């Protein structure tokens, strides 16, 4: 009899906790949402199923968990109501609100496709945006001051207080709405950077002994110095070795940044220019990033390749990187390639 009572109590407790878990799960469906209040374009292609849509919503940080979306669709029998098309969604929307928009079928057409190449500067980004009809001047102003960036981005915490957002405006192809504000555009870029720098990469940056800001600064130099991902890693190894032994980086990319040119060859007067960004005159990294690097350059800065090479140059005709082990080999290569 006692065992029966215990089993009965256990069953009651089990039902209670199952009910509590179900209540929590159901509540999450109605109150859980994604990241930020930034409007973004979301497309449902013809033939996509609920699971595909849920995964896409989660990967775009519009919902917290795809299973909440799956459950709500099942609970409300909304599978047949969702229509293919392009929509304007925000991470602050709840799942019921998102499903309502996707069911109405109000397709968004006021979008502008904008591409920023790797290694582009904030100023050049502003020019592209201006040509697309956006407020490029305001974009540049915010990128310098950080005003209007309300999200607490972990990767910006060790950025010097007065430093701009140069380096963190991730270059990519974006779909912006025509009425997008400059701060919305910048937040999209920062969110993209946050997504690309995975938790694994962040852990490895911590193990490297360098800050995120130092990694981004190095990556911005590599982006301008070499072309391929493999060559970036080799050049990264050379540059980090130079810093470790107290040798100047001697990066022509930083001289180009100061002078505002794209010359592969610089005169003695050029490399003597007085600037904290002149890595011929000053040891260590420059004060900050010189452009906005892509993922290959960022990964190269985190994962350098150790080699016996100490020098490198760029073939002006092919753009190929020529590496050398000794100063004599480097001098011979410079003569051969007219540098």
Overall description:
- With 339 residues, this protein is mostly helical.
- The chain has three domains: 28-104, 2-Layer Sandwich (Dna Ligase, domain 1), CATH 3.30.1490; 117-196, no CATH class; 203-336, no CATH class.
- 49% of the residues lie in helices and 8% in strands.
- It has helices spanning 2-31, 50-59, 66-76, 95-104, 122-131, 136-145, 182-196, 199-208, 212-225, 229-244, 252-259, 268-271, 295-302, 327-336; strands spanning 40-44, 85-89, 111-115, 173-177, 311-314, 321-324.
- The strands form three sheets. Strands 1-2 form a two-stranded antiparallel ribbon.
- Helix 9 crosses helix 10.
- The longest helix has 30 residues, at 2-31.
- It is elongated, with a radius of gyration of 26 Å.
- It starts with a helix and ends with a helix.
Low-confidence stretches: none
In helices, the fraction of residues equals: 40-55%
Question: How would a crystallographer describe the biggest sheet?
Answer: 2 strands, antiparallel
Mean pLDDT: 82
Number of helices: 14
**Strand and helix order:** HEHHEHEHHEHHHHHHHEEH
Q: Say how many strands there are.
A: 6
Alpha-carbon Rg, integer: 26 Å
Q: What sort of overall outline do the alpha carbons produce when their principal axes are compared?
A: elongated
In total, the number of domains comes to 3
Strand arrangement within the widest β-sheet reads 1-2
- In terms of DSSP E residues, the strand content is 5-15%
The SS-based structural class is mainly alpha
């Amino acid at each position: 009899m006692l065992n029966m009572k215990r089993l009965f109590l256990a069953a009651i407790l089990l039902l209670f906790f199952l009910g509590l878990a179900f209540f929590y799960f159901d509540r999450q469906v109605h109150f859980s949402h994604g990241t930020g209040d930034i409007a973004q374009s979301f497309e449902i292609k013809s033939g996509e199923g609920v699971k595909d849509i849920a995964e896409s919503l989660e990967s775009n940080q519009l919902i917290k968990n795809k299973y909440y979306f799956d459950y709500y669709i099942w609970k409300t029998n909304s599978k047949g109501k969702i229509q293919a098309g392009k929509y304007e969604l925000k991470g602050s929307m709840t799942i019921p609100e998102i499903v309502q928009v996707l069911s109405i079928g109000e397709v968004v057409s006021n979008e502008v496709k904008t591409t920023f190449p790797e290694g582009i500067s904030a100023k050049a980004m502003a020019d592209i945006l201006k040509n697309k009809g956006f407020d490029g001047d305001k974009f540049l102003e915010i990128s310098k001051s950080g005003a209007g960036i309300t999200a607490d981005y972990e990767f910006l915490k060790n950025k010097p207080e007065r430093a701009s957002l140069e380096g963190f405006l991730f270059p990519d192809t974006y779909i912006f709405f025509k009425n997008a504000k400059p701060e919305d555009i910048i937040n999209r870029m920062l969110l993209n950077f946050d997504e690309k720098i995975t938790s694994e990469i962040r852990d490895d940056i911590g193990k490297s002994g360098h800050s995120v800001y130092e990694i981004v600064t190095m990556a911005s130099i590599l982006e301008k110095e070499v072309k391929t991902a493999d060559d970036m890693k080799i050049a990264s190894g050379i540059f980090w070795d130079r810093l470790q032994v107290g040798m100047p980086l001697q990066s022509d990319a930083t001289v180009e940044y100061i002078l505002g040119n794209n010359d592969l060859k610089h005169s003695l007067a050029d490399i003597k220019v007085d600037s904290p960004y002149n890595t011929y005159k000053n040891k260590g990294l420059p004060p900050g990033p010189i452009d906005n690097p892509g993922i290959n350059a960022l990964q190269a800065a985190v994962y350098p390749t150790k080699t016996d090479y100490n020098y490198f140059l760029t073939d002006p005709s092919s753009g190929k990187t020529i590496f050398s082990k000794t100063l004599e080999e480097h001098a011979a290569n410079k003569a051969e390639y007219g540098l």
